[in-house]
Amino acid sequence: EFVAVENGKENDMVQGRKFQFPSGSIVVFDKGYVDYQWYANLTAQNIGFVTRLRPKAVYRVIQQHPVIVAKGILKDETIQLNSAHAVKRQTPPLRKIEYIDRQSGKHFMFLSNNFRLSASTIAAIYKDRWKVELFFKAIKQNLKLKAFIGRSRNAIQTQIWIALIAYLLVSFARHLGQEGWTVQRLLRMIQVNLFERKTLKALFMPDKIPIKQKEAQLSLLL
């Protein structure tokens, strides 16, 4: 949906601020995107966000909300970031959620401007951010982005954009296909049928063989 490709010399926030998200969106990002002014801008544009609270963040608790400990929620609070940096940028009141993952035992502190969703939903939204990491892993493993063919800026960006386009097409093919298809399996299927004139639908959703024809084939094998 949104992609920015730049050199590695600037902070990710430089590109992050340029995105124009639709009103009502929920943006999920890690602690590398901490920017109090951006928090205020997103809130003013009716764009929600879920991120991690920095351990050294300075704030005061305005209100405490009931929690469901059985769902791993330890605290649900309304806070005000009150460091000089946050006050200068007029950061709005935010929501701090402390959560413990029962499986791993890890403790997390989430920060959000969404006060409508339940605390467990906010935690689940941040957990979905892991799909971004899986996406990068998939394109590195399956679309040959571990090494670059050329070293110029144009060559590197061209190779990255081609990989992203290929991933988008394969994702669409997976949407058309049956359950159980993976990106790797789809790519193998494309490689095998590279010189066949078939539509994606025909390739990933082949016509089922009639029962009588199957029986005939089995008889022939016998």
TrEMBL record:
InterPro entries: RNaseH-like_sf, Transpos_IS4, Transposase_11. Residues 3-169 form the Transposase IS4-like domain. The keyword DNA-binding applies. One of its GO terms (biological process) is DNA transposition. GO terms for molecular function: DNA binding; transposase activity. Coiled coil: none annotated. Keywords: DNA recombination, DNA-binding, Transposition. SUPFAM superfamilies: Ribonuclease H-like (SSF53098). Belongs to the transposase 11 family. PANTHER family: TRANSPOSASE INSL FOR INSERTION SEQUENCE ELEMENT IS186A-RELATED. This is IS4 family transposase. It comes from Acinetobacter terrae. The lineage of its organism: Bacteria, Pseudomonadati, Pseudomonadota, Gammaproteobacteria, Moraxellales.
